[in-house]
Write a structure and sequence with these properties.
about 475 residues, alpha+beta, Ribosomal Protein S5, domain 2, Thiol Ester Dehydrase, Chain A, 3 domains, 6-stranded mixed beta sheet, hydrolase, UDP-3-O-acyl-N-acetylglucosamine deacetylase activity, HotDog_dom_sf
């Protein structure tokens, strides 16, 4: 059963301070059309630039994940994206009047609650998942980071953290399906060690920090004066170290809350792949930099597979639209210059033609007879003949016209073609035919390999004797 894409029913707004900038920001989740994905819009910047939630737009991972595009940036976006993925929402436009998302309570739960209050709506288009095809590995040996994505018909996560801390120790967290996110992961808050907190405070790097939005792990001996200093900084009466080895500012929501939050960050960062995933993600000691590098690796694989799948592989034995005899009734070419054997598909805007390359071709008598290669110039000619069928198909009496090719641009030969290959040419109009002038993009494939591509311009001309 196909699963439909989803967006939110109505706009919903949340406000708060950014963790690092301290700036108050109002963030509005807006419904978005099908295939829109996740996008941020900086409404406080001239022109209201839009920033795609895409791993290629990541510019910083030092203290959260930052995206930059069109002259604007948004930072600490991982908790927001995790909420959207966890709710299985596909399309949202997020308006922000500041550079950093509000930290809220340090988790995703307040974003989740706000979105659920707005409601979700199913759209007409199907959700297209990327299914992890085989084990995809990523590692950083110096940081002891290991990540792997494995095939699974669901979205499952397992995360292990180990900071060589007597207080935190080794922890792991797991969900067997993304449907468990809201209950098991969304409320898990960010955390830091006391020595990190002190360094950040010293350098004024957490202007929006509050002891209500982070778990502070006490990884060293602290005296009363230091605790009193922290209490003063955060406008608190007093601060103590709780038995669990954390500051008593908050109580843990889960015994393994730090590991659950790292899992939350992973979900948010991997949303930057740009498509919903199906697979089991396992990670040891992940962080934003590793998450983003892993997301880039997955996206690169997706792009490679999509480029291969852009052209379907045709059965050479399928019934053609035109066979060789029918082609000769349209094109004026004859042996040895008739280079198309079949037309497999034909519409008003595209055509697919087939050329069987055999050792019996006249050309191989002189063109590398001991190591025969089908010449690139003839590949372009065969592509042009295929395009000629498309162009002549637009006139009522094609036998009375010919096509003159006016221009060939951006021709590239990407792989060799040898006897025994079946060349498939795909030609698509780049614009409607005007005044008998046609512009088209042609691509030649052998199986799943793209071997040649070019942009062609042709003119329809009536034969002089017609």
């Amino acid at each position: 059963m196909n699963i439909k894409q989803r967006t939110i029913k109505a706009p919903v707004t949340v406000s708060g301070a950014g963790l690092h900038t301290g700036e108050k920001v109002t963030m509005t989740f807006n419904p978005a059309p099908e295939n829109h994905g996740y996008k941020f819009r900086r409404v406080d910047v001239e022109g209201m630039p839009v920033i795609d939630a895409d791993v290629d737009n990541v510019t910083d991972t030092s203290r959260g994940t930052t995206l930059s595009q069109n002259g604007a940036s948004v930072s600490t976006i991982e908790h927001v994206l995790a909420a959207l993925v966890g709710l299985e929402i596909d399309n949202v436009l997020i308006d922000m009047d500041g550079p950093e998302t509000p930290i809220m309570d340090g988790s995703s739960i307040q974003f989740v609650d706000a979105i659920l209050n707005a409601g979700l709506v199913e759209q007409d288009a199907d959700r297209e998942y990327y299914h992890i095809p085989y084990n995809i590995h990523y590692s950083e040996p110096d940081r002891k980071v290991d990540m792997v994505a494995m095939p699974l018909d669901d979205y499952r996560f397992t995360c292990m953290v180990d900071y060589n801390s007597q207080v935190l120790g080794s922890q792991h967290a797991t969900i067997s399906s993304i449907t468990e996110f809201v209950k098991e992961i969304a409320s898990s808050r960010t955390f830091c060690f006391l020595h990190e907190l002190e360094m950040l405070l010293k350098h004024d790097l957490i202007k929006g920090g509050d002891l209500n939005n982070a778990i502070v792990v006490v990884d060293k001996n602290v005296d009363e004066s230091e605790l009193q200093h922290l209490a003063k900084l955060f406008n608190r009466k007093d601060i103590k170290v709780a038995p669990q080895g954390i500051l008593n500012n908050i109580e843990l929501r889960h015994q393994n809350e730090p590991a659950r939050h790292k899992l939350l960050d992973m979900i948010g960062d991997l949303a930057l792949v740009g498509v919903p995933l199906r697979g089991h993600i396992m990670a040891a000691r992940p962080g934003h930099a590793a998450n983003v590098a892993f997301a880039k690796k997955i996206k690169t694989l997706i792009k490679k597979e999509r480029s291969r799948k852009h052209f379907k592989v045709y059965d050479p034995n399928m019934k053609p639209v035109y066979d060789t005899v029918q082609i000769m009734k349209i094109l004026p070419h004859r042996q040895p210059m008739l280079l198309i054997d079949k037309i497999l598909e034909l519409s008003k805007s595209h055509v697919v033609g087939l050329k069987n390359v055999t050792m019996n071709e006249e050309i191989f008598k002189g063109h590398f007879p001991d190591a025969p290669l089908f010449p690139g110039v003839l590949q372009i000619e065969a592509m042009a003949q295929t395009g000629g069928i498309l162009v002549l198909n637009t006139v009522p009496d094609p036998e009375n016209y010919i096509t003159l090719f006016l221009k060939i641009e951006n021709a590239r030969f990407k792989d060799k073609v040898v006897p025994g290959d079946t060349l498939i040419f795909h030609c698509n109009l780049l614009a409607p035919i005007r005044r008998g002038i046609a512009q088209m993009k042609g691509i030649g494939t052998v199986g799943e390999r793209v071997v040649v591509e070019a942009e062609l311009m042709a003119q329809i001309v009536r034969k002089q004797n017609s």
